[in-house]
Write a structure and sequence with these properties.
This protein is 48% helix and 18% strand. The chain has 537 residues and is α/β, with parallel strands linked by helices. It has three domains: 91 residues; 146 residues, no CATH class; 236 residues, SGNH hydrolase (Rossmann fold).
Length: 537
């Protein structure tokens, strides 16, 4: 009975709460620094692994260190906790030290400035490369092929002309033609013994070469995406292949990298798309022949707008190349834009405004990136646009068609490579151009004017070059016409009515042949637009 009277009804576990609370407090006191140090050790170790071996292993290291700290803090004995705390402290201090020293070296190399010399380029390779580039810059259409040594010489020479902390950059083409384009590079900084290594890819987008850094290591570190900016800018400034191709800019249509060489196909933005010698060579078969006689009867009078703009609302907006820009006639009233503008006003009884943005020498690539399309989009936000016409594509091809290679032999593999590259680039570009027009002018009537063949004299199958160029221009027009119709545009046939007429509708029979239309030729193109609009009702 006495034992029962003095027993504690709460049981032995609750008989002394002060003792258990003390144990819990001690355990919590040991856990707090372990988790605190573990968090920062995990971040430091994760960053170190991120820089050394990549993002996946960096995240893995962060998770492993942090989970270890949490598990030991929750279930480990005091001895294991103390040992783990020491290890985590070492990991924290060591990771910070390694990352700090490495980043300091990179910062010193990258931001030390451009003082100091660069390594000289290989003179023989540079001479050969620059000779090729000079020819490229003079041609309307070009296919530039540089061997790896020549490419390195050009880029090393460019490095010497830029403010850059790199002393040298060497490129190594690692893939075969047909495989994804990859160029490995190794660079050395002017300051210190630090090197950078990486891999870049290249592709053509909208007439420009886009370089992408696939991987880049600086010293011991692999830079993550967020830390590549400064180094990527340095490499991009050196590897400016477009600047190497043409000082005045070029529409790059294709870049092929592989087998220790790089091939760039494109056209230069120039008014002189055909050299007279090349035209004579292309038509050499026709010297003793008589072309088919085709009579062209004028249909329309001149337009009323002098220049490229007139007031009025809504607006007729013209986009395009030298045809929209009235090249070939002295008075803009004789171009197709002013003539078509007058026809619209007479038909609708409306005083339409006119804005003609046509740029001579424009290609589909330069229209995308050169400012004309962007200006049209800006106008769409400010003016009510009722009609849009666009002619674009002839300059994408004519530089290649008039080249010595294609003039001599249309079936020459290099000629065919040029043409296929042009057509593929045009298909990409025209789709983007038309999509942007749809967004900018959803309520306007948009008319695409297809290109004519300036080599169509009427010799037909008697002259191989004429038939082959007809086929090639037809392919170009089919690409654009299908894309236009798919988007609800009208398609004006500028090709068919100009067939076999260029002896009178262009200046191709002049001493210095010129592909541009005469006043009669612009009358024919006006008719193509008018017929397309009239057929649509």
């Amino acid at each position: 009975m006495a034992a029962t009277m003095f027993s504690d009804p709460r049981g032995p576990a609750q008989a002394d709460p002060t003792g258990s609370a003390t144990i819990a407090a001690e355990r919590s006191a040991r856990r707090a620094p372990l988790i605190f140090v573990g968090i920062f050790a995990a971040l430091a170790a994760g960053l170190l692994c991120l820089l050394l071996v990549g993002e996946f292993l960096g995240l893995l290291a962060l998770g492993f260190v942090l989970s270890t700290a949490i598990v030991v803090a929750s279930f480990g004995t005091p001895l294991v906790g103390r040992i783990t705390l020491i290890v985590l402290t070492v990991v924290l201090i060591g990771s910070i030290a390694i990352v700090g020293v490495g980043l300091a070296q990179i910062a010193a190399a990258v931001f030390s400035g451009s003082a100091g010399g660069t390594e000289p380029a290989d003179e023989a390779a540079l001479f050969t490369a620059e000779s090729k580039i000079r020819v490229t810059a003079q041609d309307s259409g070009f296919r530039l092929e540089l061997e790896e040594a020549e490419l390195n010489a050009v880029l090393q020479n460019a490095l010497a002309e830029t403010e850059n902390p790199l002393r040298s950059v060497s490129f190594d083409i690692t893939n075969e033609i047909g495989d994804p384009a990859r160029i490995a590079f190794v660079g050395a900084f002017k300051s210190g013994d630090l090197n950078l290594e990486g891999v870049l890819s290249a592709e053509v987008t909208g007439g420009s070469i886009e370089l992408e850094i696939v991987d880049i290591d600086v010293g011991m570190f692999t830079l993550p995406g967020v830390g590549r900016g400064a180094v990527e800018d340095m490499i991009a400034s050196v590897a400016d292949l477009e600047a190497a191709v043409a000082e005045q800019g070029a529409d790059i249509q294709e870049i092929t990298i592989g087998s220790d060489k790089i091939i760039i196909t494109g056209v230069n933005r120039t008014n002189a798309t055909i050299e007279s010698a090349d035209v004579l060579a292309a038509l050499g078969e026709a010297e003793a022949l008589t072309p088919e006689s085709v009579s062209v009867v004028p249909r329309f009078g001149p337009g009323r707008v002098k220049g490229t703009r007139s007031s009025g609302t809504p607006v007729y907006l013209a986009l395009g190349d030298s045809l929209a820009a009235n090249v070939g006639v002295d008075d803009s009233e004789l171009g197709y834009v002013s003539r078509f503008h007058a026809l619209l006003e007479d038909r609708d009884g409306t005083e339409y405004g006119l804005i003609n943005l046509g740029v001579s020498g424009e290609t589909s690539g330069t229209l995308l990136n050169g400012g004309q399309l962007a200006e049209a989009e800006r106008i769409s936000n400010e003016r009510d646009v009722a009609y849009v016409t666009i002619d674009i594509g002839a300059n994408d091809l004519l530089g290649h068609l008039g080249s010595p290679t294609c003039s001599a032999d249309f079936q020459d593999p290099e000629c065919q490579e040029r043409l296929e590259a042009s057509l593929a680039a045009y298909e990409r570009n025209i789709g983007e151009i038309f999509d942007r027009l749809v967004l900018a002018f959803p309520d306007a009537t948009i008319i695409f004017l297809s290109a004519y063949n300036p080599f169509s004299f009427g010799y037909g199958e008697l002259v191989t070059f004429e038939t082959e160029s007809n086929t090639t221009l037809s392919r170009l027009n089919t690409i654009a016409t299908l894309a236009a119709v798919e988007r609800g545009f009208l398609a004006a046939d500028g090709f068919t009515p100009m067939q076999a007429t260029v002896g009178t509708t262009t200046y191709m029979r002049d001493v210095e042949p010129d592909i541009h239309p005469t006043a009669l030729g612009y009358d024919v193109l006006t008719g193509a637009l008018w017929d397309a609009l009239s057929s649509a009702g």
